[in-house]
Amino acid sequence: MTLAFIKQINEYVIDATLEANDEEILACVGSDGYPSLRDIHRAQAMIKQTIKEQRQYRLSQQRAAFQVYKQEQKAALNISPKRSIPEMLSDIVAAMQNENKVPEGLILAFREQGQGGSEDDIVKIWQNLVELGLIDPNDTGR
To answer: Are 129 and 135 spatial neighbours (Cβ–Cβ below 8 Å)?
Structure first.
């Protein structure tokens, strides 16, 4: 027997199992060569436990990555910008003109927030756009 022949037999068995109705499959449970109901329940419990553990692991990994991201963002916002006001204005204009990245409604919010026009307002707008990911605070290659 070749490996290809054995694989083909396995495919036939899988197809036959998938095509069988529930009553036929349940009638085989516990028969010679088939798992018992207890074996099936044990396998289900193991699979459920493994899935639960994997989900918990992925969740903890994502939470840890998110915490690192939040710390990086917080650190980036707490550092006083190394950009001058004209450079910040240039960054803001460039970010607003990037139609592919600007979420809908942001331009209207930007117009409403930018009514004052003081340097503090410009810095705040620039920091907000950095926080949204529309401006890279470390990008100095203009």
So the answer is: yes
Let me know if residue 116 belongs to a domain: yes
67, part of any domain: no
Amino acid 68 reads V
Residue 62 within any structural domain of the chain: no
Domain extent, residue 136, equals 80-142
Total-model pTM: 0.44
In a domain, 63, yes or no: no
What is the total count of domains within the chain? 1
pLDDT digits (tens, 9 = 90+) for 7-55: 998 898 888 888 888 888 888 888 887 888 899 899 999 999 999 999 9
